[in-house]
Design goal:
The protein contains five helices and four strands; from the N terminus they run H-H-H-H-E-E-H-E-E. By secondary structure, the protein is an alpha+beta fold. It is globular and about 50 Å long.
Length: 136
């Protein structure tokens, strides 16, 4: 590369490697980005999720400890879904939400519809119970 990569470039590579399941490149990208931006909680979470999706639980614990030692915290994300004309707010911490089964049933239905339309669709459960649909 004719220029030195910055945090944005390393972050883009990290995100892409997670999406495509290339753990080795993802680890390298996360480590490089953390060298440039050591206080970036989002990078730590991506790093942690990369290890979690690979089943490297000792590394997950190591990254969690790094975050704790640095005092890094993140705000939990939320999603909204409408069911029978009623809006529900769901968050990562809402694992016991009374509508979870109904929401997952809607997601399953949507995935079936997407697949029936000829798309390849995968439901990915990330660490911290984030639900992501990857459709191509």
């Amino acid at each position: 590369m004719p220029i030195n990569p910055n945090g944005i470039i390393w972050g883009s590579l990290l995100s892409s490697s997670r999406l495509h399941g290339n753990v080795g490149i993802g680890i390298e990208a996360a480590e490089r980005r953390l060298e440039l931006e050591p206080e970036c909680a989002a990078t730590h979470l991506q790093f942690l999720n990369l290890y979690a999706n690979s089943g490297c639980w000792d590394q997950v614990a190591r990254v969690r400890k790094m975050m704790k030692d640095k005092g890094l915290k993140t705000d939990p994300g939320h999603s909204w879904i409408e069911i029978k004309n009623e809006m529900y707010r769901l968050g990562a911490e809402d694992g016991l939400n009374s509508k979870t089964d109904e929401v997952l049933a809607v997601v399953d239905f949507l995935v079936d519809q997407i697949r029936d339309s000829g798309y390849v669709c995968e439901v990915v459960n990330y660490f911290y119970q984030k639900l992501v649909l990857v459709c191509m």
